Amino acid sequence: MRACWWSFIFSDKRSASDYSVDQTLIGLSMIMTFFLMQPVGAAIYKDAVVPFQEGKITAVDAIVRGGVPMRQFMSHYVREKDAALFLEIAKEPRPANINDLSFRVLLPAYILSELKAGFQIGAVLFLPFLVVDMVVASITTSVGMMQLRLSSYPHRSSFCCFLWWMAGTFS
Question: How far apart are CA 158 and CA 164, in angstroms?
Fold first, then answer.
């Protein structure tokens, strides 16, 4: 099986430009995920899986024990505004501590927090390229080297509106 996988990956690959960008990004994201989540996985294995395999605890106890490291990890990175939003949607009372949130509230709040952080990082990385693109386009247009009409490049204005919305939402 392993040989089939490697032959699929390396079939007809002659240079670095022949490799798929998707495969590279997925591989890098998996490596980073394993690196970041290794302490949580090790704690779940030690506290829940090993005692369950030895017959010391039941399956329900193993699930509860395994949820503790996940809860600590997610509650460390969840934003309070996102947790409050999902508490309101779920119509649950506000807990005294963020570690007391139910998984029903904590999991979507954590996902939303990470998505917001990802979009903010993406916008910050993309913004300088957008500015350079606008400057180059205006310079080349002013000297008569018309490359693209503004009407054929509509995502500039929509992206500026998106950035304006994000600045008001996340600040």
Answer: 10
Residues 97-143 have pLDDT tens digits of: 888 888 889 999 999 999 999 888 888 888 888 888 888 878 877 77
The answer as to whether 91 is a domain residue is: no
Q: Is the pLDDT of residue 14 over 50?
A: yes
What is the spatial distance between Cα 6 and Cα 15, in angstroms, rounded to a whole number? 16
Decide: residue 12, CB within 10 A, 0-12 exposed, 13-18 middle, 19+ buried.
exposed
Name the pLDDT band for 2 (thresholds 50, 70, 90).
very low
Residue 36 located in a structural domain: yes
Answer whether residue 45 is part of any domain: yes
Q: Which domain holds residue 29?
A: 21-77
Nearest to 163 by CA among 126, 136, 137, 134: 126
**Does residue 84 fall inside a structural domain?**
no
Decide: 73 and 43 in contact? Cβ < 8 Å: no
Compare 17 and 140 and report the one with higher pLDDT. Answer: 140
Burial of 21: CB neighbours in 10 Å, binned 0-12, 13-18, 19+: exposed
The token pair at 11 is: 């079939």
What is d(CA 137, CA 128) in angstroms, rounded to the nearest whole number?
14
Please tell me the total count of domains within the chain.
1
